[in-house]
Amino acid sequence: MAVNQLTGTILFELEIDNLFLANTYLLAQFLMLSLFYYAIFKGKKQRKYILAVLTIILIILGVQYAWTPDLFLQYNTIGVIVTSTVLISYSIIYFFNYISDKELKLYLVNSGILIYLLGTILLFSIANTGLKLSKHIDIALWILNAIIYLVFQIIILIQWISDRRKKKHAQY
Fold first, then answer.
1. Beta-carbon neighbour count of residue 41 at 10 Å?
2. Helix H or strand E segment including 3
3. Is 145 exposed, middle or buried (0-12, 13-18, 19+ CB in 10 A)?
């Protein structure tokens, strides 16, 4: 994420199109969060399902980009919707698992992922409807996205602090 952000900032400052980074981020986010859910799910069937879906979606996206190479330099609406929907479904499944097994950890991180993905898919869908929105609305959408991302990071920090405190108390 940091490398993507730094590269995007540098390209922006050099006035070079950096939209392709949205696609690299899309793929990296999908891969990393799928592997995250693979690691935290306990059930073998759920883990196999995640690997199967991950493989299928990556193949489909790979074929899509190979078939239409120019798409890599554009905003891939279908890719965003498909990958985000899959990740949101993993998040919801994790919550269902949590209802039956209170020992599951990372429920706050899962909440943050759900909030972040739902928020960004909604904001980017609005921004990419093809409508010509005013510059003020575009800026407001980007600021709102940054706020959603900040909330996501704060939730992760709260989870981390909570886990550290539990470990510290368990040592005594």
1. 19
2. helix 2-13
3. middle
Cβ count within 10 A of residue 26: 18
Q: Which helix (H) or strand (E) holds 19?
A: none
Average pLDDT over residues 110-126: 86
- % helix, strand, coil for the chain, step of 5: 85, 0, 15
What integer pLDDT is reported at residue 159 of this predicted model?
A: 87
CB 118 within 8 A of CB 149: no
Could you tell me the two tokens for 159?
A: 């989870």
Average model confidence (pLDDT) across the chain: 85
The terminus-to-terminus CA distance of the chain in angstroms comes to: 36
pTM: 0.82
Burial 91-127 (b: 16+ CB within 10 A, else e): bebbeebeeeeeebebebbbbbbbebbebbbebbeee
